[in-house]
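Handout, tutorial session.
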Amino acid sequence: MSSKTLILLASHHRESNTEQFVQEIYGDNPYQLINLLDYHIQSYSYSGQYSTDDGFMNVIATMQEYDDYVFATPLYWYSMSGLMKDFFDRLTDLTTETHKELGKALKGKSVSVICAGSDPQPPLGFEQPFMLTAQYFGMIFKGVSYKAFVK
């Protein structure tokens, strides 16, 4: 695994099954983890106005330093977590004139997904938002790793 891997964890609680699965996959391989719980990422705003404590651009600034992104999310109601959905909605900000260069800088980076849930497998279409977002930004989509945790 590359030492330039950035994992964005989007579980709604700490020490989650998703984080455990990340550790199982990566073991002692180097990676940087951003826990989206540590950032106040607001929902997308059509006005582009966010409070000063919004952490989205801080996460994007860190992403610029890495070549390989892993989006780690639990499976909630057949989809990504709300934290991850807010983050993905905010990627729209990278298509505006103000931040377009940051969006263009994602081209050629690789993307994969780590997901934990209770179903035997993720539902059909789960990977679509990740794959299509990667495609939109010219990123390389490497697929989904999924693990079912039994309650």
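The second record follows below. Compare its token runs with those of the first.
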Amino acid sequence: LLPVPAGRAWRWTGMLDPARLPVSYNPAKGWLATANEMNLPAGYPHLLGLEWADRSRINRINEVIAAKPQFSLVDAMALQTDTVSDNARRMMALLAGLAGRNDDERAALAMLKGWDGNEGAGSAQALLYEYWASTALGPAAVAALVPQSARAGFGKASASNIVPVLEDGALLGPDAAAKRAEILLGSLGTAYAALVSSKGDPALWRWGGAHRAYFVPALALPDRGEGRSAGPLGIGGSGSTPMAASYDDNFRVTAGASVRLVMDVGAWDNAMVINTPGQSGNAGDPHYRDLFPLWAGGDYVPFRWSREAVDAAAERVINAVPQ
């Protein structure tokens, strides 16, 4: 996983022939999709990578596409901005049938009961789930399952790695159900109590109130950096939804699609697009950050291609003339 100098002394033997890369051509199911998951076919002999995203996003993408015999531009836009988390749904399945042991656990279970894993910006359940999954579940699982001497090597255990362990049960000891309930309920109650302390009334919780996008130029001019920033705006999704929106310890969005595009092949003027924060890179231009709220809300604008369509939609034309 670390870079080394090229050469045979460092076990480099040459470049892989592109013809030996994995290929899928006109698959019988009628479509192709990928979302950074491990997608090499079983038995593939070459090492192309060692680190992959978990399968939560591709599972949801596969589910949505497979359910529709025809897929339109509107469907494609909806999928790009889909905020359903497969990881969250799996966690909700693990909670089914559990009974809280104290007021915090009972209140948290009541809030999450029947939740479909949709992490929309207005969802209180999404805030509770993501706070639980990112701050409380990992430490609880490591404390319950890892010997004290080995815990330091686990870092910040992610929910995507913990969920399969809880589902499988093989590492949970002789009474897997009891150990699973202990980890789930204890960490969920802890997360709920912490949110009440920091966010107040649960009726007012919103995922977008904590999960916010904020764009700041990497290279800001003196005294002008803030004027070139955009945001913050609350958005839905997470690192486990098709609308990828990973975040840091403060729930500030750190990664995701800054550009979304859907194309009608052969009828290019039907294309739709969105980027953020705007079309112009000039902070004084009205189009510098005007697309940001559309992007945050999952909306698109027309993307014209033909000369006629571009001219008809043009607001102004800038002529650059050499001196």
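Points raised in discussion: Residues 176-199 form the longest helix (24 residues).
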